[in-house]
Amino acid sequence: xxxxxxxxxxxxxxxxxxxxxxxxxxxxxxxxxxxxxxxxxxxxxxxxxxxxxxxxxxxxxxxxxxxxxxxxxxxxxxxxxxxxxxxxxxxxxxxxxxxxxxxxxxxxxxxxxxxxxxxxxxxxxxxxxxxxxxxxxxxxxxxxxxxxxxxxxxxxxxxxxxxxxxxxxxxxxxxxxxxxxxxxxxxxxxxxxxxxxxxxxxxxxxxxxxxxxxxxxxxxxxxxxxxxxxxxxxxxxxxxxxxxxxxxxxxxxxxxxxxxxxxxxxxxxxxxxxxxxxxxxxxxxxxxxxxxxxxxxxxxxxxxxxxxxxxxxxxxxxxxxxxxxxxx
Length: 328
Ligand SMILES: C[S@@+](CC[C@H](N)C(=O)[O-])C[C@H]1O[C@@H](n2cnc3c(N)ncnc32)[C@H](O)[C@@H]1O
Description:
By secondary structure, this protein is an alpha/beta fold. The chain has helices at residues 22-33, 47-57, 63-83, 99-108, 122-135, 175-188, 205-211, 218-234, 295-304, and strands at residues 2-5, 10-14, 37-38, 87-91, 114-119, 140-145, 161-165, 194-200, 243-250, 255-262, 266-270, 275-279, 284-291, 308-314, 320-326. The chain folds into 2 domains: 2-15 and 59-203 and 292-326, Vaccinia Virus protein VP39 (Rossmann fold), CATH 3.40.50; 22-56 and 205-291, no CATH class. The strands form 3 sheets. It has a 9-stranded mixed sheet, with helices on both faces. Strand 5, helix 5 and strand 6 form a beta-alpha-beta unit. Helix 2 (47-57) packs antiparallel against helix 8 and helix 3 (63-83) runs parallel beside helix 4 (99-108). 43% of the residues are buried. The structure holds S-adenosylmethionine.
């Protein structure tokens, strides 16, 4: 682990390195040889991917960010009052734009001491840490650059904590992986700690599909960014222009599936993985799922992992849900 101390109120721990460990290579190989061929979603988010995701959040079609933000504005004071926490830990924190709504409410209640942004993308953790200590006087930021599926034990010890996951990040995990993840969050927390889980709710399919097929093509660029990451990380020889962005709703599994479709028959060589395979014209690689929940499914996910559900918040159109839970 690389632990960098910056100005006295910022610490950043780095648990992922620039090298590609054998475990990551094995995961990539297994995904690319699976049916359907799959690339882990976390590789969408290098520094450029994080910037593209920020741009997606501003798109007119991407209703999720503005709806979740307004919902947080409506309920943040109550959450802070109910939980009385002084430490906020955010898993998959990204640009932490909406997090400011919670931090503002904690500051209003004179409860803001400590923020832990936890993300796989180092650039954005460092940027957010610097921005937030400038914005909030007296705030301590302890950033963690890591994989939240592997490095949760590195969440720093603190007082009573509120762990949050926003932006539909939980939806990127398949059902069993989501259950395992929430159970490991439960194991890391202390009795009396709180958990706020943001979920995107199932709604009109046309509206959902439009959010992932924006007219400006930003989501397509974001999706193709994973090919650039594969070129850099493991030396993949491929032409990103020979792929097309595809996002379709799967009604059976309640989720958007984002894929890259090959426009031609091609051979992909990946020296860093000792791998070479053929892609047929029209063959697709799955890069992201975004599962849409409803209230009962969100509650079951939390309660099956040992949390007590305390409060369910939703917007008037029921597009976003925020489930507040506590470890008993
Ligand atoms: C859908 S974005 C949400 C960002 C932000 N929370 C929001 O609400 O806009 C998912 C975030 O999770 C991060 N992420 C994805 N997989 C991760 C993993 N396995 N470990 C840590 N962070 C991850 C990405 O880098 C990205 O910032």
